[in-house]
Amino acid sequence: MQAPTLYRQLAEHYLSAIRHGTLATGDRMPSVRKLMQLHEVSLSTALQMCRYLEAEGWLEARPRSGYFVRQPRRIRLAPALEPKPATVIDPAQFVGIHERVSSIIAQGQRPVKINLARATGAPDLYPHKQLRQLASSLLRQYPLLLTKAISPGGNRDLKSALAKRALDVGISTSADEVIVTNGCIEALNLALRAVAHAGDVIAVESPTFYGLLQVLESLGMKALEIPTSPSTGISLEALELAMQTYDNIKAVVVVPHLQNPLGSIMPDSHKQRLVTLCEAKNIPLIEDDSYSALANGDKIPTAAKHWDQTGNVIYCASLHKILAPGLRLGWMLGGRWQARISMFKYAQTRYNEELSQLIAATFLQSSSYDRHLRKLRTTLTQQREKMAEGIATYFPEGTRLTMPDGGVSVWVEMPPQVSSRAVFDAALRQDILVSPGLLYSNSNRFDHFLRLNCGTHYSHELEEALGVLGRIVLDLARIKKVASA
Amino acid sequence: MQAPTLYRQLAEHYLSAIRHGTLATGDRMPSVRKLMQLHEVSLSTALQMCRYLEAEGWLEARPRSGYFVRQPRRIRLAPALEPKPATVIDPAQFVGIHERVSSIIAQGQRPVKINLARATGAPDLYPHKQLRQLASSLLRQYPLLLTKAISPGGNRDLKSALAKRALDVGISTSADEVIVTNGCIEALNLALRAVAHAGDVIAVESPTFYGLLQVLESLGMKALEIPTSPSTGISLEALELAMQTYDNIKAVVVVPHLQNPLGSIMPDSHKQRLVTLCEAKNIPLIEDDSYSALANGDKIPTAAKHWDQTGNVIYCASLHKILAPGLRLGWMLGGRWQARISMFKYAQTRYNEELSQLIAATFLQSSSYDRHLRKLRTTLTQQREKMAEGIATYFPEGTRLTMPDGGVSVWVEMPPQVSSRAVFDAALRQDILVSPGLLYSNSNRFDHFLRLNCGTHYSHELEEALGVLGRIVLDLARIKKVASA
């Protein structure tokens, strides 16, 4: 990994001073000339640092006076509430989540001006030019690639590249063990089919990615929703309680890093305890690790699978959020169920097409991939900050937001009387698409939440859209208050 | 469709005379000069016709004497025996077919000199150059194709192209109803999951494609093997009997055209009766129509789905046997189960990648596709004939073969005492890969059969390999005879 650039190191230094109160709101920053002397840096580095902190909302430039410390508006947003671990839980096979999701998705399929419902970055955040060139050059190199039968077992190059990259998250595995799938969604299907049957209960985070609820519904399994913290992920107390209450839990599914929609990241100690707990109870743990490369910082978080001694953890991940949303490439390590999962994969969809695998393999093996990830993380961080500023500016009092430490979206809690479905409908009439909270649970527990995408360049148009959204939320909050008064 | 070329029309004329005995073995053909006068054709056409019939094994050239009628050697091969409709049937959930298939496939994964186990044509039988050029030009046309999120619902162009092509097999549908899948194997999975559950009994052809048996095993369903004729496909008498005997059949799966491995083609009257029968018994019919475009003649056979009035037929097909083995593109029409299948597809693997869909769509919409298919059919016909000649030449007495009316393989019945597993092992030791009959049934009913691929250019090496195979079969037939004597 490359070290952070000089101006970023300097920025961290001053940010820390601001956070600790050494530099208070309204304080003047040292002048650029002073910064150059103090830190023995060039004019360009000093300026870059100030502009960076300005863009992040921590400094404001006053003409002819220099830079002054300010508090970003988003500081005013209260963090989301922590869930109560003892919340009453009921395993639900919500026959209808697919219909609910489909109806929302179907409505959102017409072209809109501003799409905040996406779960990926905008297409130009990914290395489209390099991937396109790779595609053409690979087709020249392997002229029969599109017309020869796909080699059994999946593409060896991609499997090697993924096994190597797995070292970054603390997993030591071999290319042979990597099963390439059609996206993480196929991996989750295979994992669940390997360890459970129709009618079985599966513990999931709450809120959770609606795609998982749809998978459970399609397999006839029941979701047991476990309270999950916006900062530290699934509540281990609640999970343990659930395991004591229900003796028929057949698997636990978690997204330890940048959970969708919360953005929470489980501390290492929690992941380790979770692995131990599941093992002790003999309940398979399915880890969905599709987002970890988008976490802030230069060290990718360690996978729960790292602490797995017995093969009780099935590791699932994908490349489309981090490398290329147009490639449906997921992958998994099957743990104790490796043979069964391999069989299911072969019987379900055979092996993936080779071209996309070769494109991905070649890119993953190069240092371009590391450069891409660093750039993507920086861009997303800036965009998340700006989105949070916009929300703090335009959304009404009572709005809550825990800033996630990475990822492509924020999870916004609106005043409790506001229904996300109503916001969705009103926003769509104004050509804005949002992802309503009611999709993220079998209950209506999160109906006053929105998941807003931060993967798009923060433009004037986007700011306007946030203004429109803010007014919609404000209006709905007032109407409801009046109605209930 | 283009009319057959002049020399082919002429060839058909003389072939008919030979078949009817008007021209007997040993008879001299009219001279080339005579042919030119008789039919008012050019020298080149007359010569082309004679050379074509020579290549097909019906004429032999004698120096300075002209062409003489001969019988191809394959005429000496007796056709495969018809099954007995009343054969005792037992629904079997063969837990282990996957293991059996995997062990065979795993052994065959090392590079071999001659691969006769393939289920597709050789890569150069497909339009690799055109597809490659399309890929590069589409990537230029849509520069963000690899990095933008896949559009919901699947690629519209491909769905339109497939709906249009469906007219050729007698199906009138709309682009909206086409569900694009990861190969026909995913389509079969989705179809079976939509109509049946673990433990249910599914009627299948016997012998049948081992992939289907693996799908059934992986879904926990039981295969009920119905006797199937090498010429007319599934026995309707046997199927009806089975429906009377077992009241828990939840679906019937058939490959009406160029059944794998038999190569049989169901007559239209049979397909119609099958559709009516299934409808009357309220049992869903799943039609796998992946090979029909490879049937001889200029008219693609009519799908069973054509006679479906009530949505009781689920139609599944794919493009990799006919257009490009490297593209994992299947598709289906869900009939009454359309909504359920769409949900399962979404929850299982989302939508397919766009690039391959666009490549296929663009090619299907052009007349290049028709030209490709005509050429592919002609090439395969010649290669099947040559393979049959080779088998007639080198395999021992008692070998049986029904020439299929199209497709990429032949199904060879060896003397009953010969085990296909033993042939497989012995052949592999000599670097030849075959597909043993024991894979095509849960029973050992077809252990003395081989499926041999005809998709490779018939070379001297290939002829030698058939010689080796013939000796292996002969040796095994003798040893077994002695042992049992």
From TrEMBL, chains A, B:
It holds the Pfam family GntR. It comes from the Bacteria. Gene3D superfamilies: Aspartate Aminotransferase, domain 1, Type I PLP-dependent aspartate aminotransferase-like (Major domain), Winged helix-like DNA-binding domain superfamily/Winged helix DNA-binding domain. GO terms for molecular function: DNA binding; DNA-binding transcription factor activity; pyridoxal phosphate binding; transaminase activity. Residues 4-72 form the HTH gntR-type domain. The keyword Lipid metabolism does not apply. Transmembrane segments: none annotated. PROSITE patterns: HTH_GNTR (PS50949). Signal peptide: none annotated. InterPro entries: Aminotransferase_I/II_large, HTH_trans_reg/aminotransferase, PyrdxlP-dep_Trfase, PyrdxlP-dep_Trfase_major, PyrdxlP-dep_Trfase_small, Tscrpt_reg_HTH_GntR, WH-like_DNA-bd_sf, WH_DNA-bd_sf. In the C-terminal section; belongs to the class-I pyridoxal-phosphate-dependent aminotransferase family. This is PLP-dependent aminotransferase family protein. It comes from Undibacterium jejuense. The lineage of its organism: Bacteria, Pseudomonadati, Pseudomonadota, Betaproteobacteria, Burkholderiales.
